[in-house]
Amino acid sequence: MRVALVQMAAGTDPDANLTTIERLTAGLDAELIVLPEAVMHDFGTPTTLLGPAAQDLDGPFVTALSALAKRQRAAVVGGMFERSGDDDRPFNTLVVVGPDGELRTTYRKAHLYDSFGYRESDRLSAGEPRPVVVDLGGLHAGLLTCYDLRFPEHSRALVDAGAQTLVVPAAWVRGPLKEDHWETLVRARAIENTVYVAAAAQCGRAYSGRSMLVDPMGIAVAAAGEAAGVVTGEIRPDRLAEARERNPALQHRRAWPAYAGPDGAAGSEP
């Protein structure tokens, strides 16, 4: 499967963002197009209200992605703010649209970015912690959003649910060592799970860029720098099978008991 990772700096004008998406994806030869997190409407400043920006799943943003998918004859994954039961705190949601324009599935970000001095939970609601895997023409893709990368158990749950590729839209905030964390975590999730990782990130003043398609051995098949643009690469089932034969770590897993403390039976020392 040929994958296109779209790297761009979204703003707070959804129509302008859609214009940029259409420009960057025009004429792409890809079966899967991955857009960044919050590509419908950026987070803005820490005081930007996200509730008024949220849309329903049958709103103009998803409708536009549906038209894009049909026009490009490709599956499209992208991030939006979805209305929730809390008018002030919408969901941070990924939508997956098939080449036929039909909405295939959604994933509401489970791990909100309350880290590095930022509090995403002040403005957004967390989704339920459940693995979301979607079949895209025979490729089983597991969905993660940005900060989810820091939780290896989330990726492993997706792989246990059948994911062969992890799709990771992100708006990875710049900062000391943050770019290094991004690259390390994308490669680590690929290596430890022997899967492809297709990570499409926002760029610009606030975000790190560096979108990457990493293969099951941790090799960057395609990678971007800091600028807006598109990078493409191939997800190859034979490469996946070869990697899992050479590195059968998933077959070697042992069940580890939870640590119950120094006086507990599980994990205690004599």
pLDDT < 50 stretches: none
How many strands, which pairing sense, and closed or not: the largest β-sheet? Answer: 6 strands, mixed
| Net shape | globular
Q: SSE order in H/E notation?
A: EHEHEEEEEHEHEEEEH
The CATH superfamily is known as Carbon-nitrogen hydrolase
Q: Could you give the distance between the termini?
A: 53 Å
Mean pLDDT: 96
CATH class: Alpha Beta
Class by SSE composition: alpha/beta
- CATH topology, by name, is Nitrilase/N-carbamoyl-D-aminoacid amidohydrolase
Percent of residues in β-strands: 15-25%
Count of distinct strands: 12
| Domain module count | 1
Give the spatial strand order of the biggest sheet.
5-4-3-2-1-12
Report helical residue fraction.
10-25%
Q: For the CA atoms, what is the radius of gyration?
A: 19 Å
User: In the CATH classification, which architecture applies?
Assistant: 4-Layer Sandwich
The number of helical segments is 5
Q: Characteristics of this structure?
A:
C-N_Hydrolase, 12 strands, 270 residues, alpha/beta, six-stranded mixed β-sheet, 22% helix, 5 helices, single chain, Carbon-nitrogen hydrolase family protein, Nitrilase/N-carbamoyl-D-aminoacid amidohydrolase, C-N_Hydrolase_sf
Commentary on this structure:
The protein has a single domain (2-252), classed as Carbon-nitrogen hydrolase (Nitrilase/N-carbamoyl-D-aminoacid amidohydrolase, 4-Layer Sandwich). Helix content is 22%, strand content 24%. It has five helices and twelve strands. It has helices spanning 14-25, 60-72, 152-160, 178-193, 237-246, and strands spanning 2-7, 32-34, 75-82, 91-97, 103-108, 133-136, 139-143, 165-170, 196-201, 212-214, 220-223, 229-234. A six-stranded mixed sheet has the order 5-4-3-2-1-12. Strands 6-7-8-9-10-11 form a six-stranded mixed sheet, covered by helices on one side. The longest helix is centred in the last third of the chain and has 16 residues, at 178-193. The radius of gyration is 19 Å and the shape is globular.
